[in-house]
Fold these 2 entries.
Entry 1:
Amino acid sequence: MDFLVLFLFYVTLVLIGIVTICICSKTHYRKGLVRGGAQIISYIIPECLQRAMLKLLHYLFHTRNYTFVLLHLILQGMVYSEYTWEIFGYCQELEFSLHYLLLPYLLLIGNLVFFTLSCVSNPGTITKANELLFLQAYEFDEVMFSKNRKCSTCNLRKPARSKHCSVCNRCVHRFDHHCVWVNNCIGAWNAKYFLLYLLTLTASAATMAVVSTVFLVQLVMLSDLYLETYIDDLGHFQVIDIVFLIQYLFLTFPRIVFMLGFVAMLSFLLGGYLCFTLYLASTNQTTNEWYRGDRTWCQHCPHAARPPSAEPQVHRNIHSRGLWSNLGEIFLPATAHYERKKN
């Protein structure tokens, strides 16, 4: 039971942490929490270690590097190695359908293709050559994106829905976010690859979780473990329950159970993020616009300071054209189609 309690406690803490970050990132309390946490850490951790941690964090999250790309491939390789080494062989002995067992490998092939395309494809870098093209792509709302604004770093006029990425040091058309897992910006031209990468990754994790669960359930049913009894600490006979079964399976197949817990939690987290990404795609929003739109809304809150004569500026999504048109814009951006036709 020790492992099960610790694992559930770990999963609970991770989920609570993620939900807390998501909530705080959308409120004005975030800066206060970060500042308070930094002050507490400054009293606990030596200054030299703090500088080393800041340098490491800056390298990992504020410079282009392949650390998370390699970590992604290593974790994926470890999960698929365990699946191939144990689950695939056991399931063949239990006469599982071969098509059912090969599905995770088919999803892996597709995932690696879209992962590579997300890493190496041009997200929509704005240059002098295509600056005028991007300026005509979207309408300026004069709230979040204003006309005649220039990027002080690139010395280019900023098209609507664009943003300068400090990590890649370039302006990106229809900027969504910079993803450390693919070491690239996600913009107008590679958003479709990232969406399909996320979809196949979620599907592969969920498929392996289902196959592993079905294998363990089949094993319990064939061995009639659920009909057995055991003697508890007080010397009484007890019928085997679900908690005892999980503990028994972990002691018998520790790597399979641990992998099942990992891919199940990963499926839950990736599924949530996939739903959020699909929501943004269906409403023709980017992550950058969603975040900035909420900050614009917070300017009207009572605690927000603004000049008495200032008119409140309400952000409206002026780019949504309906579900199918919005999704079509992800998979066939107008500017990319125009440049291919021009070439």
Entry 2:
Amino acid sequence: MIDSIDDLLQRLQGVGYFADRRLATAAFLALKLQRPLLLEGEPGVGKTELAKALAQVLGRELLRLQCYDGLEHRDALYEWNYPAQLLRMRAVEGTETAEEIEREVYQPRYLIKRPLLQALQSPPPGALLLVDEVDRADEPFEAFLLEYLGEYQVSIPELGVVRALVPPVTILTSNRTRELHDAVKRRCLYHWLDYPDRERELAIVRARVPQLREQLAKQVADFIARLRSQPCADAFQRLPGIAETVEWARALAALDTLTLDPEVVSDTAGILFKQREDVAALTPDLAAELLAPQDA
């Protein structure tokens, strides 16, 4: 059991996730109120990683439903094992009535469970269901989710209503490529997850890349913080997330870098940015400006 927000903060840090207090409060309330938590924010700010960390902290199985355009309910909930059903029908053909065969083949043992159904039928302590990038799915799929989000149950025509054995901890993430329907939002607690401040990102780099020299870790955190601040941020289409910062720190450690300079930044820009225009925008002059002491 999580006793308090501070307790949750400490436990998350124990598994390498450094949340701020507002995020920890949202997660704590989602656990206490048994409500789904919708996390929106830019790619790479730690939405998916929070679900992974919470699963570790709670000792729950992590079930992940990765959303995409064209996702259908059978991919998320269940589908019938048609080959096995067909074999059974052939085996009893002529010995059972049509009604008996129908009752036989629509039994739970012929059900292929997908993440939503797995989450509902997970034994204690229950599962943590991550519905990742729900904004990539279409509106009909959002409508399909409403029963699950509101009541932790789903309706299967052949079997009836399936209710949760233990209410699953449910995290939805969205990069806000499109606006989600209000009906989804009303069933969830909501939190906008922003880029971390300099001190939190430094703590993450220290934890994830312990081999990086302390002075270089501070330079990395300073550089990324300035890169994301105005007016520099306007020069880029997509700013680096936490994952890119950590990967960059690992690359710098692998190169035995002693200190950041414009040449090193230019040579490794492809780790921070994934678009040609953004790599080109990080010019040596801009890199030098970002690396200059603040009091200069």
